[in-house]
Amino acid sequence: MTESDRSGELMPGEAPTGGAGGKRKSSFGDPDASLLEQMGGVRGLVYSSIPILAFVPVNAFWGLTVAIWAALGVAVAMLGWSLARRENPQPAISGFIGVAICVFIAWRTGSAKGYFLYGIITQAVYGGAFALSALARWPLVGVIWGFLDGKGMAWRRIPAARRWYATATWIWAALFAIRAVLQFALYRNDEVNWLGAARIGMGWPLALVAFAGTIWAVRRAMVHEAEPIESRSETTS
C-alpha cells in the first residue's frame, strides 16, 4: 500500500477531521454545510413546529385538555417515526422532552398560555448567560467554538479574535432577549394564538439570521488567530 493510499484511512482511535477521510459529525463549522443543516436540518424545524401547530388550534376548538393530549400525541408519533426509520433520534427526543415540560406547565397552571412559559424562561436565561459571558470577556461563542474546533481557549490571548467572538455572542444575547421580551408581553396579555405564531416565527427565521452573523464573526476571529504573532502586536498597538 502506497503512502497516498494510507492518507485516506483513519488510524485506530482517530476521529474524522472533515477532510477526504470523512466529515465532522456536527455540521456546525462545516463550510460545506448549509445554514439549515447546521441548525439541525428540516427535521429539526418540523419537530419544533408541529406540536405547536397541533396545540394552538386544538385548544381553540376543543379546550386545553384535548390540546395537551394532541401535542403529546404528535411528539410521541414523531419520536416513533424517527426510531422506526433509524434516523438520528436526538431532534425527536429533544422535541418530546420540550413538549412534555410545556404541557405539564399548561396542565399545572390550567391555562393554555402556560404551554409557552417554559420557552420564555429558557430564552431569558440563555440571553442572560450569553450577555454575562461577553461582559466577563469569556464570550460563549468563543468557548463553544474553541471546544468544537479543538483549539481550546487560545483565542482569549488575541484581543481582536476575542472581540469578534464577543460580537457573535452579543448577537445571540440580543436574539434571546427579543424573543423573551416579546413573548412575555403576549403571555401577559393572554394572546395564546399570537404566542404560537411568535414561537414559530421568531424561532428558526431569527435563528438563521443569528447563525449567519455568528459564522461571519467567527470567520473573522479565525483570521486573527491565524495571523503571525508580529502582526497581532501591530494590530493591537
In a nutshell, what does this entry contain?
With 237 residues, the protein is mainly alpha-helical.
Structure, explained:
By secondary structure, the chain is mostly helical. The chain folds into 2 domains: 38-110; 115-237, no CATH class. It has helices spanning 3-7, 35-38, 41-62, 64-84, 90-109, 117-135, 140-149, 159-188, 192-201, 204-226, 229-236. Helix 3 packs antiparallel against helix 4 (64-84), helix 8 packs antiparallel against helix 9 (192-201) and helix 8 runs antiparallel to helix 10. The longest helix has 30 residues, at 159-188. It is elongated and about 65 Å long. The protein starts with a helix and ends with a helix.
List the SSEs and their pairings.
Elements: H1 3-7, H2 35-38, H3 41-62, H4 64-84, H5 90-109, H6 117-135, H7 140-149, H8 159-188, H9 192-201, H10 204-226, H11 229-236
Helix pairs in contact: 3-4, 3-5, 3-9, 4-5, 6-8, 8-9, 8-10
